[in-house]
Amino acid sequence: MVQDRGPAVVSFAALGVACVLAGVLVAAATTHAPSQHGSCAAADLEPVAGVAQVALGVGQALLALQAPSSRLVAAEFVGWSVGNAAALAGALLDTTTVVDVGATLRIVALVLVVHRARGAPGRRSWPLYAFRLLMVLLLVSIPVGLVLAQLQSV
Fold first, then answer.
1. What is the C-alpha radius of gyration for the chain, rounded to an integer number of angstroms?
2. What are all long-range contacts of 56-59, with beta carbons under 8 Å and residues at least 24 apart?
3. Taking the model in full, what pTM does it have?
4. Closest to 149 (Cα-Cα) out of 102, 105, 114, 109
5. CB proximity list for 7: less than 8 A, separation 6 or greater
6. Handedness of CA 68, 74, 75, 77 (dihedral sign)
């Protein structure tokens, strides 16, 4: 089942793992000279751009009723990845408009993934519930991040 969904898993997982590693490197590099930007980058890279990205790809591969089209996977991947990059760049540059664009792209990508990975009708399992919980956490955290970015720029 997962084999025919390889592009969704591989593209999301590869970039997700790279983001986790980048977050670890940023955290390590800023340990001796902590900064708000370094903490923000590490906090965004590891759980959101990294772990969540892996979960989006794997969750979709395991829970979607059919293998998604390559176009859909590309739209989700680009939306989530560019959204992450924009949110991070906007936070580092103190440009809330760029953060807002990134958040919007993240939300669009999440909606696409959630719509695709609904699970089979009548089939409820802990992976489906865990995936839905992660989607809710991400959808709640995006507006929280926007509010924090606005407060930080004041």
1. 16
2. 56/12, 56/80, 56/109, 56/110, 56/113, 57/8, 57/9, 57/10, 57/11, 57/12, 57/13, 57/16, 58/9, 58/12, 58/13, 59/113, 59/117, 59/127, 59/131, 59/134
3. 0.85
4. 102
5. 70, 73
6. positive
User: Alpha-carbon distance 154 to 10, whole Å?
Assistant: 40
CA gap 109, 142 in Å, rounded: 12
Q: Give the tens place of pLDDT for each residue, 98-137.
A: 989 999 999 999 988 887 776 655 666 888 888 888 988 9
What is the separation of C-alpha 118 from the centre of its chain, rounded to a whole number of angstroms?
A: 18
